[in-house]
Structures are given as structure tokens and as C-alpha cells.
Amino acid sequence: MNKSFVKLLQSCAGVLLLSTAGLSMAATWDYDFDGDENERGGQPLTFGDLDVKGYTDGSSSYAYLDSGYLAGLGVCDGPILSGTTGTDNKCKTTTGPNTGASDDNLQLGEMLEFVFSTKKQIEVGINGPHKSANGESVLIWTDAGAWDLLTVVAGKITLGVQHVGLMTLKIFGQGDFGQNGRETTTNLYVAGINEVPLPAAAGCLARLCWVLLDCVVARSQARQQQRLA
């Protein structure tokens, strides 16, 4: 096997993936949930090409946007008061461990589902319950990279390359979601999302490089087996 050719393919894929990330960082826009002071809930809440839904213990509830210091999106069991303006609380949960305005962040057994209309590369801002969440762990799932446990650094979680090209993101509150002890470690708000459409050409070229590399490796292994035979 030509080692120089293999290194070229590896470099090709790596550079293209890095350039994809660079384009994303240069052209991102922010879904600023923390900066939106109009409290409201819905199932879903819609932000342009993004739909957000809330779930409690696997059942449909409401995505809820809370106002105030270090806030953002959470889950409200409901009912929800009508209206989309003003900072007045509209989460009126009456049963369970958390009621009223205390039920507006992402808590035990709750999950937020984010569904985009196109494939994305994203990073997600995370707040604690009206305080910093730095150092806390957050359990996520995406349709591109499956389960992951990420640490909040500088107010955000950064999704790795395995999640590039996602269309669905799920962020989980505290509790056991069947991941062998990997759990979110605090109540939280989703403060915002930086995202851009995935550059299709760069992504396709990177995948092509990896496919070619796999073919070269497989061919080399076949030749080695023939020699041994």
C-alpha cells in the first residue's frame, strides 16, 4: 500500500472537516432563547426553521421559554396560559414536585427535542437554574451521532464531529434515561443555539476521502492475506 497516498487521503478528509467547521463558525447565527423576554409555551414552539417540543417521563408536555437572568428554554407540564408577550409567568403546572413558575426549566425526567428542517452543525448554550452551569454534565442524543454526555464549558456544550449533519437533537434533564449512569447533573435551560446549514460539498468530499481510504486499506489487507496463503 502506498503510504503517501493513504496520508493524502487522511489529510484530505481532515482538512475538509476542519474547513466545514470553519465555515460554520464564520457564518453562524444565534437562536437566542435567553435574550427573548416574551415568556411562552407551546408544543411545539417554533423559531424559524426550528421546532422545539417538550416531554416529561416520555409523555408530551410543553416546551417553555422563560425570561429573566440566565434563563432560556425548558419544559412545562402545563397547563399554559395563552399569550406570547411580556415577562409574566405562563407555566401553571399544578401537580408533581414542581409547580407554577418552578416548572419552567429542564428538570428530572424531562427532555427537549429540537427538530431542524435541514442538516446542521451546532453548538448549544446551557444555563443552570438562573445561574452558570459551567462544569456540569448534559446528556444528549442526535440522529447523527446517537448518545453523548458533554460538559458545559464557557456556557455551552460543543457537539463533536460525530454529530455533524444532525437534524434532530434531544437534550435531557436529570434522571435515568438508560445510559448506564451517564446523566445530566443539574436542572438547566437551553440558552441558545449557534448553527448553520452543513456545507454539502465539503461534507460529501470528506466522506469520499474516507471511502477511498477504506478501499485502499481493504485492498492492502486482501493482498497480505494472499501472500500468507
Question: Could you characterize the architecture of this molecule?
Answer:
The chain has 229 residues and is an alpha+beta fold. It has 2 domains: 46 residues; 166 residues, no CATH class. 24% of the residues lie in helices and 34% in strands. The protein has 2 helices and 13 strands, in the order H-E-E-E-E-E-E-E-E-E-E-E-E-E-H. Strands 1, 3, 4, 5, 8, 9, 10, 11, 12 and 13 form a 10-stranded antiparallel β-sheet that branches. Strands 2-6-7 form a 3-stranded antiparallel β-sheet, with no helix packed on it. A hairpin with a 2-residue loop joins strand 4 and strand 5. Helix 1 runs antiparallel to helix 2. It is elongated, with a radius of gyration of 21 Å. About 7% of the residues have low confidence.
Which descriptors apply to this entry?
ten-stranded antiparallel β-sheet, alpha+beta, single chain, 2 domains, 229 residues, 24% helix, 2 helices
**Model regions low in confidence, pLDDT < 50 over at least 5 residues:** 13-29
Number of strands: 13
Largest sheet: 10 strands, antiparallel
Alpha-beta classification: alpha+beta
Strand fraction: 25-35%
Would you tell me the overall average pLDDT?
84
Total number of helical segments? 2
In total, the number of domains comes to 2
* Shape field: elongated
Helices and strands, in N-to-C order? Answer: HEEEEEEEEEEEEEH
Instruction: Give the N-to-C terminal Cα separation.
Output: 18 Å
